[in-house]
Design brief:
Shape: extended
Helix content: 55-70%
Distance between the termini: 33 Å
Largest sheet: 5 strands, antiparallel
Number of helices: 11
Amino acid sequence: MSSITITKNDILQHIKCSYRIPEIAEEVAKIKIIVSKAEELQIKINQEDLQKTADIVRIVNGVKTAKDTWLWLEKHGLSLDDFEESISANLICSQLANHLFEKKIEKHFVENTLNYYGAVIREVIFEDENLAMEYFFSIKEKEISFFEVAYNHIEDINLKRTCGFRGILNRKQLKPEISPFVFSSTPPCLLNPIKTNLGFHLVFVEEIIKPILDEELKASIISELFTDWLGNELNKADILPLAV
């Protein structure tokens, strides 16, 4: 097979023709906002943190030796300076997020605790309301189990195998028509069919999980607050038209 040479211009042209310029320009703008704010707050990263993060990136990407490192950099079109710049950018982003919001976590959690409750649910969606009601009463009367209904009526093979198991979902992950009924229920329980734009939902609530402000949730809240802040900053920014 003959060799195919791909140039930087080829890649840029492909990005343009894939209509991805606005998406990438927005990502670049976010980086500039982060760097600018970090400089304003005099946030700096030290060489030790830079090295530790670089080592983690290498491990995650299966890069073990110096030769592997150079091959990996070449594959991604990166110089060593480029790689260090990318690591530095990620560290600055993380440190800025912590600087801005670490002390606001507990207050935000207290004010928004309900949003962090989780619900373990199973779900079957019917197009026909009468059929949904029929199965609702049949399950209540123990004529058939929810698991049988789910397995027999769900088309998606993965959901069928788990009998409609949706995992642990919070309020934002549930449709607004369904969320109030789920989180006001007393599990385990079957909810009356609920109508949404997708059809009539037969929902079995297995468990309501009370949130605990552990390290994982703290990190999630910081990420959430930082994403909101960055979005607001982006909306306020005057991004000049891109000339390519």
